[in-house]
Amino acid sequence: YNRNLPFMATSVIMLLAVLVLYKTVKEPAAPVIEDGEKSGIISAFREILTDSDKSALFILFAIFFWFIGYQGVEALFTLYGVKYLGIKESAAALTLGFFSVSFLVFSIPSGFIATRIGRKRTIKMGLVGLMLIFAAIIFTKDILVIRILMLIGGMFWAFVNINSYPMVVEMTTESKIGAYTGLYYFFSSMSAILGPPLFGKVIDIVGYGVLFIMALCFFLLAFICITYVRKGEYKVVETDAGA
Questions:
Q1: Helix 119-138 to helix 89-117 angle, to the nearest 10 degrees?
Q2: Whole-model pTM?
Q3: Are 225 and 62 in contact (CB under 8 A)?
Q4: Mean pLDDT, residues 104-124
Q5: What is the Cα–Cα distance from 213 to 223, expressed in whole angstroms?
Q6: Contact present, 120 and 223 (Cβ < 8 Å)
Q7: Residues 64-108: pLDDT tens digits?
């Protein structure tokens, strides 16, 4: 058993991904944008703060909160499995894999569902589902039950994660998509930085039993934020009847 194997395998996969990207993806010519239309990430965030409609601000905070909950669980679940559930590291990693596989399977269907019922409604459904799943995990140590719950939870996470970025860029103009994309990744990356140490600190004080309670609380904060979002739904582009 080589503990360095996951890192080496990931490095190889990343190199292959870069090679495929370089060989297959041909970017279109960049559109010409007037100077007055250009927007940096700082000016875009300032615009969001001063806008009377706070939809963009609330979706960014929702993204921040739900990624803190997700990153905390992802980073510490293996230790949770070993120290709290009493299973081996490999079994804990496999259990977390059920969540990831389900997320992958439902990533495309979640987009279709959002097109039918709306992105906000789909995200809220996903957050409610995740809170129910995590609440159930709090009260069980049965590894089979936890794996079934994680499998279902991955589906709900797809409802949330897949539809969040489209909501962000739908709130701006084409010339500012880059700035809003930067804000999306800034808030999600900040949660990835802050989430694991925050969860770890609380676990050091209280114990591993608090892991899913904390995640549930952050998903609840995200749910509260998303209820105040009024924009970001799919827009149907109308065409001339004779076209």
A1: 150
A2: 0.86
A3: yes
A4: 93
A5: 15
A6: no
A7: 999 999 999 999 999 999 999 999 998 999 999 999 999 999 999
| Greatest Cα-to-Cα distance within the chain, rounded to the nearest angstrom | 68
Cβ contacts of residue 174 below 8 Å, gap of 6+?
31
Query: 41, exposed or middle or buried, with CB in 10 Å at 0-12, 13-18, 19+?
Result: middle
CA 57 to chain centre: 16
237: tokens are 């582009």
Helix (H) or strand (E) holding 242: none
DSSP summary character for residue 172: S
- Residue 164's nearest CA partner among 148, 187, 142 is 187
Q: If pLDDT is split at 50, 70 and 90, which confidence band does 34 have?
A: low
Q: Under a CB-based contact definition with an 8 Å cutoff, are residues 189 and 166 in contact?
A: no
Structural contact between residues 33 and 175, judged by C-beta atoms closer than 8 angstroms: yes
Query: What is the C-alpha separation between 158 and 176, in angstroms, rounded?
Result: 26
180-236 pLDDT, tens digit per residue, is: 999 999 999 999 999 999 999 999 999 999 999 999 999 999 999 999 998 878 765
